């Protein structure tokens, strides 16, 4: 029988590598939608033997809705509006980026093994995935020029942090209202970033962040 | 129902969107006054939290709430006139965001749950971004983009820090609600390694928001591009709120017996921010950017004072109050000058003493205050911090601290002198107006009054806030 948790995590890892290698912005948005759904499913799979309260079920549904549909939908609109299809001349090339992604996986394995945490079985793979996702998000923000890719990098970072939260804690302390607040912040954040993106593309006819370099000392 | 303190401005802010701009600025003023009243009521203990698992009234939180509320009243009087005279597109949105900003900042001061605190601080970023973008220029666009991206990433790291704290709780087998109050009672059982890791991430995350070097890069851009009332709020209120997040973690570290580690981290960041602020003030061609770098330096002073501990901690809290009052007054005066001359360049402005005499008084008095000269409060607080540093035998840190203060004085002095007495290239286009002068004067007067006579309630609040971790108000 296929281990569902591990399969999900592998899909997340693959989505990270894919996003590092993809040139087309639309493809990136689709990858983010997939990643969002997978990340929201992970805590459900990790706790398959526990009974769910009705609050938990509603919360996970809302989470899949926000991470899998609403946020990618906003990104989709943003990409359509700015009418830019691909990332040209990134600071770090695509092949090099994938190589960096593979390197990050190795580093995360190394870190996880060295933490010597007494994690529940299977959680160490979650931690590896989480650290890789987080680090790749940060890398994507630094290695690409387009403002929209930077927003996607931020989302990946957020996904990674969320995964770390699920891997490390048993959710006895966190209350769903609180997690919902975090999610809402991210959603509004992406919305505002989208509005600014739209304004950047209107002012400069492009969303290249190297154009944003006037303010300095 | 202490939650009213932040629910009221949030609701009023959303209501402002539906009103025409004339009505919404009256609503802004009314909200500010009502908020001050609610704040005073919570000081008197008339309001109790309805959700004690998320919110509570801590002395340090109430202190920052009072400062924020008072500054906001002054700023809303100023904005009442300022916004009509400048090119701010979509005034209802501006007023709405001002009120939402007040609401989210009040939420920061009252939250007791680490993740609720995180949510509130991230929300302050989101609602203040439209304020920075008010002028709709390409520079404002760039500043907003940097602000929202750098702060969001920084604050995301703080969330990671919060998760590490919950991990530290689990490893210590603690079954207590996740609030700062209950964490402080069981701090000794927390896992020290993960607590330290959590502290580092929280300092980096909220330090980005507070403007500690080297994570300060968004701050000068955002402060210089925002309209002056918004800059005054960012500098006088927002930075304090981010500091509150760091302070609550520092208290937890101290109670857990890791005070030396957290103190050293804060002293390091504090000194670095002071030096970076000082270096960029020297030769700064833009006076609003200069004020922004001065904020970085002053946040460094506060972090330094808290890191030293003991008597210096009292100085840090005094510094926080007086910096908020004086710096927001200075940003409002700078707004008058910007409105009058229409430029932010120091070189093109001169002779304010003749052309804008009433603004000159508040601008120059603000300079005297911010440089740490008597009779204003920053003099007292900086002296207390230096005494505290010498008491705890940190001679090298104390001399670096003094060096930083001298550099800032030299750099800022040049700017203020040439603007006040030098030759002017530009002509004054917009004159002074009573409504735009009351606020900077009132803020300076408040700082002056607090030096001579401090209400007992504020004394006790500071004492309660710092007593748990060995701070004292008796040198």
UniProtKB/TrEMBL annotation, chain A:
Topology relative to the membrane: Multi-pass membrane protein
Entries under InterPro entries matching the protein: HyfE-like (IPR038730)
Keyword tags: Cell membrane, Membrane, Transmembrane, Transmembrane helix
Regions crossing the membrane: 51-79, 91-113, 125-144, 151-169, 175-197
Subcellular location: Cell membrane
Keyword Transmembrane helix in record: yes
Gene Ontology CC annotation, any one: plasma membrane
Protein name per Swiss-Prot or TrEMBL: Hydrogenase-4 component E
Organism encoding this protein: Desulfopila aestuarii DSM 18488
Lineage: Bacteria, Pseudomonadati, Thermodesulfobacteriota, Desulfobulbia, Desulfobulbales
TrEMBL record, chain B:
Keywords, alphabetical: Cell membrane, Membrane, Oxidoreductase, Transmembrane, Transmembrane helix
Gene Ontology CC entries for this record: plasma membrane
Subcellular localization: Cell membrane; Membrane
GO BP terms: ATP synthesis coupled electron transport
Recorded topology in the membrane: Multi-pass membrane protein
Record-annotated NADH:quinone oxidoreductase/Mrp antiporter transmembrane domain positions: 113-404
Organismal lineage: Bacteria, Pseudomonadati, Thermodesulfobacteriota, Desulfobulbia, Desulfobulbales
Membrane spanning stretches: 61-80, 92-109, 115-133, 145-169, 193-212, 232-249, 261-283, 295-314, 360-389, 395-416, 437-455
Pfam families referenced in this protein's UniProt entry, alphabetically: Proton_antipo_M
One GO MF term: NADH dehydrogenase (ubiquinone) activity
Species of origin: Desulfopila aestuarii DSM 18488
Flavoprotein listed as a keyword: no
The UniProt record lists the keyword Oxidoreductase: yes
Record-given protein name: Hydrogenase-4 component F
């Amino acid at each position: 029988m296929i281990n569902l948790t591990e399969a999900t995590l592998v899909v997340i890892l693959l989505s990270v590598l894919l996003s590092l290698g993809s040139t087309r912005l639309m493809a990136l948005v689709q990858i983010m939608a997939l990643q969002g759904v997978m990340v929201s499913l992970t805590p459900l799979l990790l706790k398959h033997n526990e009974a769910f309260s009705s609050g938990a079920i509603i919360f996970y549904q809302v989470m899949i809705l926000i991470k899998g549909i609403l946020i990618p939908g906003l990104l989709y609109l943003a990409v359509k509006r700015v009418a830019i299809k691909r990332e040209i001349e990134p600071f770090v090339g695509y092949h090099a980026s994938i190589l960096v992604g593979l390197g990050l996986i190795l580093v995360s394995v190394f870190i996880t093994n060295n933490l010597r945490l007494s994690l529940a079985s299977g959680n160490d793979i979650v931690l590896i995935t989480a650290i890789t996702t987080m680090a790749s998000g940060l890398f994507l923000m630094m290695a690409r020029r387009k403002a929209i890719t930077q927003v996607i990098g931020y989302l990946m970072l957020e996904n990674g942090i969320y995964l770390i939260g699920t891997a490390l804690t048993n959710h006895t302390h966190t209350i769903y209202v609180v997690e919902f607040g975090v999610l809402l912040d991210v959603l509004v954040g992406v919305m505002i970033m989208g509005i600014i993106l739209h304004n950047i593309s209107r002012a400069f006819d492009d969303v290249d962040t190297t154009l944003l370099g006037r303010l300095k000392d | 129902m202490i939650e009213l303190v932040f629910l009221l401005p949030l609701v009023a802010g959303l209501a402002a969107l539906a009103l025409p701009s004339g009505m919404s600025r009256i609503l802004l003023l009314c909200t500010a006054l009502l908020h001050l009243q609610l704040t005073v009521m919570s000081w008197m203990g008339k309001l109790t939290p309805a959700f004690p698992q998320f919110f509570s009234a801590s002395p340090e939180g109430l202190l920052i709430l009072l400062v924020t509320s008072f500054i906001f009243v002054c700023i809303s009087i100023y904005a009442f006139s300022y916004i009509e005279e400048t090119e701010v597109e979509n005034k209802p949105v501006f007023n709405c965001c001002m009120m939402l900003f007040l609401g989210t900042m009040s939420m920061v001061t009252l939250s007791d749950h680490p993740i609720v605190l995180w949510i509130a601080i991230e929300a302050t970023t989101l609602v203040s971004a439209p304020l920075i973008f008010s002028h709709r220029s390409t520079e404002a666009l760039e500043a907003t983009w940097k602000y929202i991206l750098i702060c969001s990433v920084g604050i995301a790291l703080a969330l990671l820090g919060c998760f590490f704290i919950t991990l530290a709780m689990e490893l210590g087998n603690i079954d207590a609600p996740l609030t700062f109050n209950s964490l402080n009672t069981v701090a000794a059982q927390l896992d020290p390694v993960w607590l330290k890791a959590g502290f580092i991430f929280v300092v980096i995350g909220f330090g980005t928001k507070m403007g500690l070097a080297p994570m300060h890069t968004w701050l000068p851009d955002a402060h210089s591009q925002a309209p002056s009332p918004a800059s005054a709020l960012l500098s006088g209120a927002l930075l304090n709120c981010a500091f509150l997040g760091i302070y609550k973690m520092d208290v937890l570290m101290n109670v857990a017996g890791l005070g030396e580690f957290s103190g050293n981290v804060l002293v390091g960041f504090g000194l670095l921010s002071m030096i970076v602020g000082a270096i960029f003030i020297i030769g700064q061609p833009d006076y609003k950017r200069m004020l922004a770098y001065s904020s970085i330096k002053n946040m460094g002073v506060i972090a330094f004072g808290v890191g030293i501990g003991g008597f210096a901690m009292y100085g840090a809290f005094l510094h926080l109050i007086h910096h908020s009052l004086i710096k927001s007054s200075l940003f409002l005066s700078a707004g008058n000058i910007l409105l009058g001359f229409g430029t932010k360049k120091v070189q093109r402005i001169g002779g304010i003493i003749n052309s804008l005499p009433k603004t000159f008084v508040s601008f120059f008095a603000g300079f005297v205050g911010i440089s740490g000269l008597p009779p204003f409060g920053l003099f007292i607080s900086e002296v207390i911090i230096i005494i505290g540093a010498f008491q705890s035998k940190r001679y090298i840190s104390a001399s670096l601290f003094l060096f930083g203060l001298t550099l800032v004085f030299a750099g800022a002095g040049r700017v203020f002198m040439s603007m006040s007495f030098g030759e002017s290239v530009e002509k004054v286009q917009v004159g002074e107006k009573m409504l735009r002068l009351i606020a900077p004067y009132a803020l300076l007067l408040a700082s002056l009054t607090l030096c001579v006579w401090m209400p007992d309630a504020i004394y006790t609040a500071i004492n309660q806030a710092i007593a748990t971790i060995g701070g004292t108000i008796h040198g």
